[in-house]
Structure prediction request, 204 residues.
Amino acid sequence: MPRPRSLTQAQLASAALAVIDRDGLSGLSMRAVAKELGTSTMALYRYVADRDELEGLVVELVLGAVDTSPPAPDTPWPDRVTVLVRRLRDTVGAHPGVVLLTVTHRHRSPGVLRWSEAVLALLAEAGLTGERRVVALRGLLAYVIGAIQLEHLGALSGAGTAAITALPPEEFPHTTDTARHARQVDAEQEFFGGLAAFLRGLDA
Prediction:
């Protein structure tokens, strides 16, 4: 008879997420997760085939927590899309190391698919069809994923902004001027200002 399983997929996903939160995505390995669980590396292969499957569990642990219920119907569709995006940002933003995994596993993660379906319903309501709706969804995903990475891994208001401000203004007049203004822009303003600009383009 096979040995009884003593770990659940939720435990595996939680341990892998703990590794990512602590050491970044580059620190994720079967060995690191086994150490987190206090078991052997080979023992993990009784539960998952490889790291790819483990990554999928992590994505679902995080994205499965995103509320995809329809926002209040008595508001304009861009506002409702913003609600869905805010929910995604708040959830993923707590675990920024997972952002790239959502790209890799977006086609098979139920959480990602449910969020995309909710957004697509609003884009359809706005009259976007066919190729235009394809571009709208992919553009929105590209903005959200990129903006979350920028916010957590290289925010404009940090040390990089100070370095850019110190560049010679005669050579980089617009860059240095923009960097000076960037110091006054917080993460919320930056993220949702960019999102609003994107949605205005869709609504045009």
User: Anything to note?
Assistant: Residues 130-153 form the longest helix (24 residues). The chain has two domains: 9-62, 77-203. The mean pLDDT is 90. The chain has eleven helices and no strands.
